Amino acid sequence: xxxxxxxxxxxxxxxxxxxxxxxxxxxxxxxxxxxxxxxxxxxxxxxxxxxxxxxxxxxxxxxxxxxxxxxxxxxxxxxxxxxxxxxxxxxxxxxxxxxxxxxxxxxxxxxxxxxxxxxxxxxxxxxxxxxxxxxxxxxxxxxxxxxxxxxxx
Length: 153
Prior knowledge:
mainly alpha
């Protein structure tokens, strides 16, 4: 599956239906910028919109994933299996981002603990302050990443 090929296929089918990006976006309940991102291959449609997109464009999910109309070839997977695979892949991406955030938070806490053990001279105090700043920044980024991942669910 090639995102740019799929994007070009979406654009082709949209034009065949005499739809603008804005009209297609309105029918799907997304922004026209989202349609543009799909068509340029920057991202793929969310699994929750794929069936409706295929219905509007008059294609199957398999055709959408392949980026071309089905010939007389035999498909190994049906549309439900492909949609389930898309849903699971997107859920794993969200879990991965949440895990990255948690790792950043834990590393920030560890650096905070290390910064508390350093001190005594000017250089050590500087290093302790530097580690404290880095740990706070790291924890904030971690909280942001986790919050963003949770908000998408």
